[in-house]
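Researcher: Next sequence.
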Amino acid sequence: LRNAGVPALHFYTMNQSATTLELLKRLA
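Model: Next structure:
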């Protein structure tokens, strides 16, 4: 998605932030 120029991502974490945080670490 980033390579295609998508400007932002929105995550619904449903009070489960650990998975989202890990994903963001891997994207960085």
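Model: DSSP finds one helix and no strands in the chain. The chain has one domain: 1-28.
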